[in-house]
Design goal:
With 151 residues, this protein is mainly α. It has helices at 8-17, 25-55, 67-74, 79-94, 96-103, 109-119, 123-139, 142-150. It has eight helices and no strands. Helix 4 crosses helix 6 (109-119), helix 6 runs antiparallel to helix 7 and helix 6 (109-119) packs parallel to helix 8.
Length: 151
């Protein structure tokens, strides 16, 4: 198996080429779980970095008019997906305590997305309920929390 700690890009390339071979169902199940954990930690790190990159407007150095436009131009995401990443990163920039919980693995990116969507246009109400919402997020899986936040 690939050691992800040494060189993340080389490790990701190796992961893409690594097949399950004769792995049994338990090994495949662990592998799926481990890959999702890796995806989550990578996405959390990406949100933290995008928050700083967007705040500095580094995307404008290439003549782009917005961070989502730059992301769609320079990365394999649509402008819609880039917009969601930027919205979540912006939310985290405004709520560094939530960012710290995400970085610590106490919340997941889906929790952040649900909170960011709910807070948009309702910042005052979110601020009033924030402590309770964060507590609920810490106790609920992402699916249930997103349903509560959307309801």
């Amino acid at each position: 198996m690939v050691d992800l700690a040494t060189d993340p890009v080389a490790s990701a390339d190796a992961l893409a080429g690594e097949g399950p071979g004769g792995w049994g169902p338990g090994a495949r199940t662990r592998r799926v779980r481990d890959l999702f954990a890796l995806k989550e930690r990578t996405e959390a790190a990406l949100l933290a970095e995008v928050a700083q990159w967007d705040a500095a407007k580094d995307w404008a150095l290439d003549g782009q008019l917005s961070a989502p436009a730059w992301l769609a131009w320079q990365t394999p995401v649509t402008k819609t997906v880039g917009g969601r990443v930027v919205a979540d990163a912006t939310f985290l920039r405004a709520h560094d305590d939530i960012g710290a919980l995400l970085a610590a693995g106490e919340l997941c990116c889906a929790h952040v997305t649900a909170m960011a969507k709910a807070a948009k246009g309702h910042e005052t109400e979110f601020a009033i309920c924030k402590e309770s919402l964060v507590g609920s997020a810490r106790e609920m899986n992402a699916t249930d929390f997103a349903a509560v936040m959307a309801g």
